[in-house]
Structures are given as structure tokens and as C-alpha cells.
């Protein structure tokens, strides 16, 4: 009987240690104080395909799930995630999607993961503006949250990485640069990635370990939470808005929430006042190409092909002069897909500007 009683007491003690702590509603504590007192931590990821863990062999091997597991196993600390992520997205898309969120639950920790796609669509100055606007939006929504910025392992453009580092230093964010960590890991890019861009589960383990080590270092030195100082970029206080009403239309028809056309030469025009311009559209397996004209000048061609249907918010340009502008979208009649017999549909919902 004494032995059974002792065994029962030990079993109950063990179970109580493993029961999730549910007293994590004291949002007056910052993330490091919650960690030290054993309270659950709420985190948010705003990012692209690496932000969402693309390339991992299964969901448990994404960087954030490995981080959750490591924090729980080593420190009995529980992390709960929320995600504003999209493959192929830029900081512009992250900013717009974050601005559109209707409910903003308390967050203790925010991860920002962009750069690899941004360098394909914009200059480093445009990137710095939108990335800073994203930081400021995140801090406006969650003023007590700590910021971690991730410089992706695949980012080859040093000027983009330098912009992330500069902004991180200015805002007191913790920047985790994965490029030297991958380089000095002893493994090749092929061994750490699925496709030389997206890490595999082994590669994401390095992400989780690096973030964990920086987090622990912040705890030890009692780091202050990231602040919201004066802005660095003159135009980073972006408040993006949609314009849904077109000025002129030919060939497009309303269908399923989009103006849709598969006819070459179909056009839709919008008028707007703003320095920056983006477009809200549907990318899909039958998505075609669109020529974009601003004030009568052809500025770019957008490809709306994607292996599955997704609504996207695409950056077009920045630095437009003050005053009224006109943007025209024209169906090019081409599609970048393996099935060349597919009709090239274009589906546009609105434009996005400040």
C-alpha cells in the first residue's frame, strides 16, 4: 500500500507538470516574461513560401513546428501560431493582407519572412518602403509584440538583406540571417533544400535552432521589446486601399467577384490618386498574361498563371507623381502553362493604392 500510494502521487505530479498551462491571458507581460513564467505564447507569421514552411516533407518539419516542439521539449513552453502567409508573395502583399484582417487577437511574437520574391518585383528602395510599412502596421496592430525578422537562406541580393538588417536595428527587432548559417553548416544547398530555394525538413531545423538560440539570448540579456520609433523611409506610412470601380471596360464581364476575360485585347481602366499601385486578381491554372499601362505608357506584363487558384495582391510600381493617374490592364492572349490549348483567362477584382 505505501508503494502504491507513492507511485500514485508521482504519477499525478507528472501529469500535472504536463498539463497545458491555461493562465496565459495576462497580456501585460511581454513574450520573454511569459516564457519565464511558463505562460503560453501567441505568435504570428507574416511571410511567403518559406514563411509558411514550403519544402518541408510534412507539416511537422516546418520551421515553426520544429520551433514549437523544441521550446516545449526543452523549456515546457507552449507556442500557438497564426499565419498570414502565401507562396510567391512579397512584403506588399503581406502588408495588404495584414491590413485587411478584421480580428486582431493579442500576439506576443511576430515573425516577418520576406525578401526572396520581393527582389523579383521591386527595387531595394521599394522593398525597404514596403517592408518598413509592414513592420509599422504590425506594431500598430500589436504594440506589445516582439519582432523577429528572418533573412531567408536563399536570398542572394546583399542589398535586400542589408535593408532588412538596417530596419531591424532601427526598430529593435531580432534579425536572424540564415545565409551564413546555411553556408557554415557543413551541408550543401542541395542537402538543405528541396529545390535550392525552399529548405527541406533538415534545412528548417537550422531555422528553428537559430531562432531558438536568439530567443534564449534575448531572455538572458533581458532584451527590451521592439519599439515604434520615427520612420526611416519618407513614404513608409502606407495605408493601402482598394478601388473597385472601373473607369472604362471592354471585353471583360463580371463573374464570381472578378472582371473576367479570355479575349486578346480586352481592357479595363481605373483612375486613382497615389504613389504606389498594385492589383487584386486571381492566379489560376488557366491564368493568362496582362499588359499594364500607366498614363499611356506600358510599364510591365503580369503573369496570372498558378498551379492552383489563389487570390493575390500584386505589386506593380511605386514613386508615381502626385495627382490623378490612369492604369489600363490589357489581355495579352498568352498563357504560361504546359497545356497550350487552355484559354488564357484574366480575372481582376480591383486595384490597390495609397
Secondary-structure blueprint of this entry?
Elements: H1 2-18, H2 31-36, E1 41-47, H3 63-75, E2 79-85, H4 91-99, E3 109-113, H5 118-121, H6 124-141, E4 146-151, H7 158-171, E5 174-177, H8 178-183, H9 189-192, H10 201-220, E6 241-243, E7 248-250, E8 253-255, E9 258-261, E10 267-273, E11 277-283, E12 288-294, E13 297-303, E14 310-317, E15 324-335, E16 346-353
Parallel strand pairs: 1-2, 1-3, 3-4, 4-5
Antiparallel strand pairs: 6-16, 7-10, 8-9, 9-16, 10-15, 11-14, 11-16, 12-13, 12-15
Helix pairs in contact: 3-10, 4-6, 6-7
Annotation keywords:
single chain; 354 residues; alpha+beta; Rossmann fold; Jelly Rolls; 2 domains; 6-stranded antiparallel sheet; 5-stranded parallel sheet; 28% strand; globular
Entry summary:
With 354 residues, this protein is an alpha+beta fold. It is built from 10 helices and 16 strands.
Amino acid at each position: 500500500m505505501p508503494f502504491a500510494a507513492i507511485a500514485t502521487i508521482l504519477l499525478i505530479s507528472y501529469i500535472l507538470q504536463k498539463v497545458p498551462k491555461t493562465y496565459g491571458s495576462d497580456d501585460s507581460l511581454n513574450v520573454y516574461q511569459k516564457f519565464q513564467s511558463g505562460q503560453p505564447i501567441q505568435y504570428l507569421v507574416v511571410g511567403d513560401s518559406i514563411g509558411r514552411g514550403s519544402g518541408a516533407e510534412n507539416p511537422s518539419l516546418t520551421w515553426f513546428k520544429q520551433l514549437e516542439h523544441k521550446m516545449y521539449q526543452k523549456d515546457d513552453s507552449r507556442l500557438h501560431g497564426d499565419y498570414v502567409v502565401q507562396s510567391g508573395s512579397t512584403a506588399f502583399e503581406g502588408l495588404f493582407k495584414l491590413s485587411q484582417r478584421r480580428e486582431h487577437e493579442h500576439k506576443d511574437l511576430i515573425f516577418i519572412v520576406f525578401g526572396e520574391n520581393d527582389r523579383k518585383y521591386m527595387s531595394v528602395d521599394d522593398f525597404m518602403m514596403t517592408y518598413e510599412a509592414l513592420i509599422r502596421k504590425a506594431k500598430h496592430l500589436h504594440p506589445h509584440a516582439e519582432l523577429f525578422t528572418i533573412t531567408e537562406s536563399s536570398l542572394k541580393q546583399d542589398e535586400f538583406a542589408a535593408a532588412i538588417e538596417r530596419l531591424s536595428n532601427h526598430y529593435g527587432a531580432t534579425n536572424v540571417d540564415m545565409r551564413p548559417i546555411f553556408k557554415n553548416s557543413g551541408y550543401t544547398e542541395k542537402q538543405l533544400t528541396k529545390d535550392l530555394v525552399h529548405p527541406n525538413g533538415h534545412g528548417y531545423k537550422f531555422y528553428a535552432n537559430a531562432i531558438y538560440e536568439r530567443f534564449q539570448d534575448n531572455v538572458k540579456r533581458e532584451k527590451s521589446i521592439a519599439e515604434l520609433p520615427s520612420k526611416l523611409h519618407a513614404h513608409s506610412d502606407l495605408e493601402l486601399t482598394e478601388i473597385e470601380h472601373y473607369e472604362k471596360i471592354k471585353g471583360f464581364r463580371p463573374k464570381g467577384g472578378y472582371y473576367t476575360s479570355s479575349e486578346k485585347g480586352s481592357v479595363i481602366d481605373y483612375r486613382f490618386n497615389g504613389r504606389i499601385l498594385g492589383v487584386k486578381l486571381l492566379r489560376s491554372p488557366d491564368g493568362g498574361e496582362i499588359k499594364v499601362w500607366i498614363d499611356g505608357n506600358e510599364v510591365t506584363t503580369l503573369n496570372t498563371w498558378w498551379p492552383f487558384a489563389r487570390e493575390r495582391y500584386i505589386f506593380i510600381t511605386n514613386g508615381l507623381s502626385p495627382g490623378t493617374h490612369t492604369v489600363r490592364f490589357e489581355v495579352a492572349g498568352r498563357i504560361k502553362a504546359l497545356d497550350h490549348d487552355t484559354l488564357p483567362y484574366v480575372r481582376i477584382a480591383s486595384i490597390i493604392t495609397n
